[in-house]
Write a structure and sequence with these properties.
- The protein is of the alpha+beta class.
- The protein has a single domain (3-92), classed as YaeB-like fold (2-Layer Sandwich), CATH 3.30.2310.
- Helices cover 38% and strands 35% of the residues.
- The chain is built from three helices and five strands.
- It has a five-stranded mixed sheet with strand order 1-5-4-3-2.
- It is globular.
Length: 93
């Protein structure tokens, strides 16, 4: 089973959410902990170790580090705009 680590952005975003949405995202993260490559996750184009998963109106960008048995949650944000990818590009630079 993988350990979970959150980026600062992901932690701040989760802390601002209403409890119902936080619970939805936490449920998906628990699923990813046992199966980090489910059928509904896709690779982020141009950044192969990173995967994306959709949870309702939110998008989660994460990667696994097998050597450390770690699931790193890099970015969480709303799906309806490109804000998630702008944040992702910013942390990748």
């Amino acid at each position: 089973m993988l350990q979970i680590r959150f980026s600062n952005q992901a932690t701040k975003f989760l802390n601002r959410l209403i409890p119902k949405h936080r619970k939805q995202i936490a449920g998906k993260i628990k699923e990813l902990k046992s199966d980090p490559f489910p059928h509904d996750s896709k690779t982020v184009k141009g950044h192969p170790p990173y995967m994306r998963a959709d949870i309702g109106e939110y998008r989660l960008i994460y990667k696994t580090e097998d050597d450390q048995k770690l699931l790193l949650v890099a970015i969480i944000g709303k799906r309806n705009d490109d804000h998630v990818y702008k944040l992702f590009r910013r942390i990748k630079s």
